[in-house]
Structures are given as C-alpha cells and as structure tokens.
Design a protein that fits this description.
The complex is a heterodimer of chains A (66) and B (260). By secondary structure, chain A is mostly beta strands. Chain A has one helix and five strands. Chain A has a five-stranded mixed β-sheet, with no helix packed on it. In chain A, a hairpin with a 2-residue loop joins strand 3 and strand 4. Chain B has one domain: Aldolase class I (TIM Barrel), CATH 3.20.20.70. Helix content of chain B is 38%, strand content 16%. In chain B, strand 9, helix 6 and strand 10 form a beta-alpha-beta unit. In chain B, helix 1 packs parallel to helix 8, helix 2 crosses helix 3 and helix 4 packs parallel to helix 5. Chain B starts with a strand and ends with a helix. Classes of the chains: A mainly beta (66), B alpha/beta (260). Chains A and B meet through strand 5 of A and strand 4 and helix 2 of B. Strand 5 of chain A pairs antiparallel with strand 4 of chain B, so a sheet runs across the interface.
Amino acid sequence: MNLTVNGNNTSFQDIKTVTDLLIFLKLEPETVVVELNTLIIQPESYAVTTLHDGDQVEIIRFVGGG
Amino acid sequence: MLTIAGTEFRSRLFLGTGKFSSSAVMAEAIAASDAQMVTVALRRVDLDNPDDDIMKALSLRDYTFLPNTSGARDSQEAIRLAHLARAASGSSWLKLEVTPDPRTLLPDPVETLLATEQLVKDGFIVLPYMNADPILALKLQDAGAAAVMPLGSPIGTNQGVLTDFQVEIIIEQAKVPVVVDAGIGAPSHAAYAMEMGADAVLVNTAISVAGNPVAMAEAFAKAVEAGRAAYLAGMGQRSKQASASSPESGQLSSDLGFLS
C-alpha cells in the first residue's frame, strides 16, 4: 500500500490501521496528532481507522516556536 | 493579576520556545523567567528522529500552552492548524498568526480578522498577532479575541517597540488585555512596553539566542516587573520644556545678583 506520510510517498507492508503505522514509525500515539486526508483522527479511533492506498497522512507535533 | 479568558496569570512575561540550543536550556530559561504562558508551534514530525519531542522537557500541567499557527499564509491554513493544535494540546488557547510574506513576517490583517471570527465560533480562546493598528485591534476585540497582540517590530528583529505611538492608542482603547509581541530585543524594550500599560509581553528570540539564555530570562522577568510597577505608580508627563528638579527659589545666583 502506498501512503503519502508527511509529504513523502512511501510503500508500506502489513499496515492496516493508524495504530499500525504509528508503531511502524516508532511514534508514541500520545505525542502526535494524526490527520488523514485533512481530517483529524481522534486518538481513540487510531486502532479502528483503516488506511487505504493513496491516503494522505500528516503526523504532527509541537516544536519550539514563538 | 492578569486575567485572560478567565484564567489568572501571576507573570506578565510570556515566553516563546523557539530557537533554543537545547530543550534543557529552554526548560531552564522558562523556569528562570517565571513565565506561566509559553508558546509552541506545530510541525510535521521528523520521521527520522521520532524521539525528538519538545514536550518531553515541558509539562502541560506546569504551563498554559499557547500554540501558534505560524506558517499559515491565510485564514484557512490558520484554522486548520488551530484545530490540529487543539487536538495536540487538549486546550483551546491559540495564538493566531497569519503571515503570508516570509520576508517581513508581518501579519495579514484581513485574514487574521476572518480567522478570528471563525475560531471564536469554533470555541477557541484566540489571541491574534497583529500589526499595531488601533482600528484593527478594536475589530478583533469585537470579533471575540481574548487579547490582542500588537507587534513592537517584526518577528525576530530585536528592534524594540517601534510602534509605540499606535500601541499606546491600542492600550488606551482596549477592553481586552494587550500583549506586546515580536521584536522585543532587550529587557529595556519589555520595560518600556509595560510602562506604557501593556498587560504583558511575549519574548522569544531575545532570550533564546542570548549568550546566556537563563540569565537573560531572569533579566526580562525583572524588567517586566519594573515596567509594570512603574506603570502602576503613575509615570510623569513627558515635556519639551525643562522643569528644574531643584527648588527655583533661594538660589545663590539670584541672591548675589549675578547670572540673572
């Protein structure tokens, strides 16, 4: 399955849900916000939100800023 | 006490968290500044460094986080970032920033007003970063902004409060707190804004790029307190005409009849 994650088009194997993707990317779910095709996914839905070929995923977190 | 949207703040110094050399220095500087409100930005996670997380150094419990919408070039981008920020922080505080021109980073007044109107409807506590325009400040206030944040000078320039003439009018007219933001490059600039009657100042670059950010944070804390105290004490009027500090009667010169 091909996903565009943070602007990079990448092929993933064995990934079905947002939770699978975060585990694969070694990201702790509580430290990020996930947007799927410009819709924010609530953390409690990560495990049941399935990803599809061509999906646009943004994974965002706080950084230093003014 | 400063109250914004029903929340009380003992400290009138808000700190930005950008451009620190490390998270440890940032956390120590914030502690030294006594700030209770800190700004943060939202960016894509660096997937090559999944552990790089500023929130490891800061606790949501210890500070009021004020996420900004930096990078937004119009109201729609700002609104999208605002909703992401709320999902990330679990709170509705927002520093609204719409800066279409990367060279000046000056805020777009029209898009800022549009975004404020929408975000207030969406339940956000909106603190818009704005040019020091008294008319716009009133419009943002009427749109439901919880405070207004006029710039002293462009972001990161350390030039101080070049907009003092307009900031004074904004302060005079405002019914919401006025936070002077951007360009404050020295403790004296912060003190000056506070002496004018600003309710708070937001400082980032001047502290984060200082030789010793922790010591500079302390210096800013003192300046903000001094400026506030001076404002409350009642500043003397400025005048072009000299006015002697020493008594004008009983001078030797007049008694002796020379130099008169």
